[in-house]
Amino acid sequence: MNRMSMINAFDPSTLEALDPSSRALIERRQRVLGPAYRLFYEDPLHLVRGDGVWLYDPQGQAYLDAYNNVASLGHAQPDVVRAIAEQSATLVTHTRYLHEGVLQLAERLLATLPSEMSHVMLTCTGSEANDLAYRLARTVTGNTGVIVTQLAYHGVTHSVAEFSPSLGQGVPLGAHVRVVPPPDAYRGETDVAGAFGRAVAAAAQDLQEAGHGLAMLIVDSIFSSDGVYADPAGFLAPAVAAARAAGGLYVADEVQPGFGRTGAAMWGFQRHQVIPDLVTMGKPMGNGYPVAALVAQAKHLERFGREARYFNTFGGNPVAAAAANAVLDVIERDALIQHAHRVGAHLITQLHDLAARHPAIGDVRGVGLFIGVDLVQDLSTRAPDRELATRLVNALRQRKILLSASGPGGNVLKIRPPLAFQIEHADLLITALDEILSSAP
User: Fold this and answer.
1) 129 neighbors 293 (Cβ within 8 angstroms)
2) pTM for this one?
3) Distance (Å, rounded) from C-alpha 318 to C-alpha 84?
4) Residues 6+ apart with CB under 8 A from 24
5) Per residue in 25-72, pLDDT tens?
6) Could you give the CA distance from residue 263 to residue 278 in angstroms, rounded to a whole number?
7) Are residues 348 and 318 part of one domain?
8) Cα–Cα distance between 128 and 166 in angstroms, integer?
9) String of b and e for 167-189 (b: at least 16 CB within 10 Å)?
10) Based on the domain organization, do 293 and 404 belong to the same domain?
11) For residues 243 and 200, is the Cβ–Cβ distance under 8 A?
């Protein structure tokens, strides 16, 4: 989220302008949750219910959700709710007992991945999955270095926060971490993929000279926090080759682009014709239930399995497995990968038409239902317009449409709705954007 649209403190005049109910909740929140939490929007939103692509406030007003991919299929999706309730009423244990549902989930996940990927390790969150990936990469390579993109976000555990630069300067990167610019930095290069690969090779060399070596290159294959970069397809291949040449592993962070969101395949990395050493997944996996996973090539787990036991009390419990299996059922039954492609293509076309009418839109990027809209002060310089992005996000909230912004300049509208999003919902969003941009000074 654009940090200018995230609020953690309110001056008295701002609080006074809010309705009494919101003001009371904010005061309670600040008192009991403390200063580290943030709220979205200048006028924070109080939500009590969700249904599909809609979220509802206490007065029953509906808000179109074009942002939240945690409920990847849609809020309160009936099949997932039913699966969770039925399993909760039957058995809740952990993975030290045999359970058919847990094994079924692992087998189904592996069936969607390249044949080289052969083992599943279940966690509760994407942060845990990325933390485990780092432990595994250190064991396999004997190195400690990590390469990430400039504004990457990979999680909040101590180890993972050290290679999540999007958390800000208050959460410093580890001495063993190197950042490389995201795809936009190579605009104008004749070989964009090669330029990115050379940047990774240079970072790996720097880690080697500093005595860290390279344990892993970890990339969110939609570059979500960096500003959403899906193209060109195949872009990652030289970087993966450079990481492996330096002795490191390639970790595909699929927490955001995974589970069909790109509309091209089940996993974002598949658009780049690369085979990961490790794949991590999270948010969309249980449609809001805390379940996540690390998937590894067998050769990478041999030493780790000999030297360390892995156990997670809640990771992969039967209820989590039921939720995740239900998500896979719905993706297959409702052909949601194809649906994301169809609706996303319509939305991207409409956004390009919008850009032709509004010079504040400098670029439209994305694939499927993961799209970034670059807002600029000037088309020739492409200087980011953070202020406009902040105004747009908050103006859309007032029109009961929820979005966020990302990127180094805080100027990229991030469109990432639940997969239940339909063409008519896309048209509602386009109409609102058109009206707000037309009225902008």
Assistant:
1) yes
2) 0.93
3) 9
4) none
5) 888 888 888 888 888 888 889 999 999 999 999 999 999 999 999 999
6) 22
7) no
8) 18
9) beeeeebeebbbbbebbbbbeee
10) no
11) yes
